[in-house]
Structure prediction request, 74 residues.
Amino acid sequence: MYKNDIRLDAGIIWSLLAEKGSISLHRLIELTNFKEGFLMMAIGWLAHENEILITEKNGITYLELTHSVSDMYL
Prediction:
């Protein structure tokens, strides 16, 4: 039903991470303005595809790409 929307949202998140590097979950919410449920589904999509790392530092959740963009084009 929403699979295409989730895929598109995941692409937007991937692009932001490629551009900015590590981003806190809170900042990602601010940058995308996605509804929380759709944001979490898009993050789940990226995690399932092994595209992102999810870490926690000092109680703050961060996301980053598993590979740098430059690594992808070598």
